[in-house]
Design a protein that fits this description.
This protein is of the alpha/beta class. It is 37% helix and 19% strand. The chain contains nine helices and 15 strands. The strands form three sheets. The protein has an eight-stranded parallel beta barrel with strand order 1-3-5-7-10-11-12-15, surrounded by five helices. A two-stranded antiparallel ribbon has the order 2-4. The N and C termini lie close together (7 Å).
């Protein structure tokens, strides 16, 4: 059965009070309407000038994020919303692991998991913005893939041992107790759809969590992931296949499915009617996807709490119910 989650928009050009009101409204609606999860993204600063390449846009640039936006820190936001909710799971879409020291990150997530009763999902990414890496003193940008692999090993170790010790390329530690540990094992869903990300998901992930790709691209990547699991002797069915996407409801779009639009300087998104959304999401389901988190809006709506909740109601009534 397909599960649906909600992205709550912790990066916002709205004034602080309005941004908080909108996030709180979405969280409350997700809890009340039966959505499975809420999700936040992870940028803490966005340089006004950057030479970094963003691989998910045709131009290699990302102008969708305003550097002057309010950027609410991801784990802090989830901690606040854990206290507002009883049921929804709390996910990161995706957390750039090297922005926080691995032991601090392990402590933050274990604390959040304990406070929420075991509801955390760690969507994990390597990041792409070199200037942000440098601001936060990450160990290496050029070898961030190997660095993230080390992070994942550290997280699993300290979450499962009372007296962990580790000797890695970038981090070494021993001689302490680590508590609290997570209520349950925190699942780690690997972000990205590159071949490197798929290899990481096959080797180290509990799930795969790409963003903004078409059903055809998703199916091809899922097949590649299955092959990589087989190469490692791993059961592909152990992994949760997930997806993050943006949907804009707009009448008058032709065709049976949502229209995929890929602006030159922003991630791709889908446009169309609720019935077209159902048809498109069925294709992801056929490719093995079992959890989708959505950022849904209606064309022409202002970015208020009221319009955000109304769009979520429409999606729940006219899309989610078709997958019940």
């Amino acid at each position: 059965m397909m599960e649906f989650g909600v992205r709550v928009g912790n990066i916002s050009t709205l004034p602080v009070a309005k941004a908080v009101e909108r996030m709180q409204a979405l969280v409350g609606a997700a809890e009340d309407m039966g959505y499975a999860s809420i999700w936040v993204t992870d940028h803490m600063v966005f340089p006004t000038e950057t030479a970094s390449t963003y691989l998910s846009t045709p131009s290699g640039r990302l102008t969708e994020i305003d550097p002057h936006s309010n950027m609410f820190e991801a784990v802090t936001v989830l901690a606040a919303f854990a206290g507002m909710t009883k049921r929804v799971r709390l996910g990161t879409n995706v957390l750039v692991l090297p922005y926080r020291h691995p032991l601090l990150l392990a402590k933050m997530l274990a604390t959040l998991d304990a406070l929420s009763g075991g509801r955390v999902i760690l969507g994990a990414g390597v990041g792409w913005l070199k200037e942000e890496f440098e601001l936060f003193g990450a160990a290496t940008f050029e070898q961030r893939g190997a660095l993230v692999d080390e992070y994942i090993k550290i997280l699993r170790l300290v979450w499962s041992r009372e007296k962990p010790s580790f000797e890695g390329r970038w981090y070494r530690f021993s001689g302490f107790d680590f508590a609290p540990r997570p209520v349950h094992t925190i699942p780690i869903w690997i972000g990205g759809a590159s071949e490197v990300a798929l290899r990481r998901a096959a080797a180290l992930g509990d799930g795969w969590h790409p963003s903004h790709i078409t059903p055809h691209e998703y199916a091809a990547s899922a097949a590649s992931l299955r092959s990589k699991c087989a190469d490692r002797g791993r059961n592909f069915d152990e992994l949760t296949l997930s997806l993050s996407l943006r949907v804009v409801f707009r009448d008058g779009v032709s065709g049976d499915e949502l229209e995929f639009q890929r602006p030159p300087d922003a991630p791709g998104y889908f446009v169309g009617s609720p019935s077209q959304a159902v048809a498109t999401l069925r294709r992801y389901e056929e490719a093995g996807c079992s959890h989708i988190n959505i950022n849904v809006t209606r064309a022409g709506d202002p970015p208020s709490a009221e319009t955000a909740v109304e769009a979520l109601k429409v999606f729940a009534r006219e899309v989610v119910q078709k997958f019940a």
